[in-house]
TrEMBL record:
The gene is BnaCnng33100D. This is BnaCnng33100D protein. Its main location: membrane. InterPro entries: EXS_C. The chain crosses the membrane at residues 14-32, 52-71, 106-125. Keywords: Membrane, Transmembrane, Transmembrane helix. One of its GO terms (cellular component) is membrane. Residues 57-142 form the EXS domain. Pfam families: EXS.
Amino acid sequence: MKLTEEHLVTTRKLLFKSLILQVALYVGGLYICGKIGWESVMKMGQDTRELFFYETFLYYNPLLLITMMVWLWDVNLWVFSRTGVDYAAIFYLGPDHHSHKEIWKCARWMTTIILTSMTAYLYLYSHGDVSLAASQPVLFCISLL
């Protein structure tokens, strides 16, 4: 019995360290994207900045809306699981439906990929490679297929 308790404590410590590392990497990636984005926007002139924001809205608005929908779906499933609602029975889902943890991973990766693509677009656009920047959303959408 003693060995099992020690094993559980060790496993919990490893899971906690793994979670801390994942959070640190995610926050670090967000910081890098934010820093590159801020420096690139500040490098642009006012007229270029307005055109850039318009084009970015056109390119990335559908992707951001889909990602937001997945985040909200995850919150919905999380609330169902916390309150004890059997959503699988309510919505007639099969035994292989996804939990809120799996949806959360999907939403997290979607957010990371979209923000990375937007940062690359912003960097290329602000450094004068407009044609290469314009191909960034297209390459992103093709890679999703």
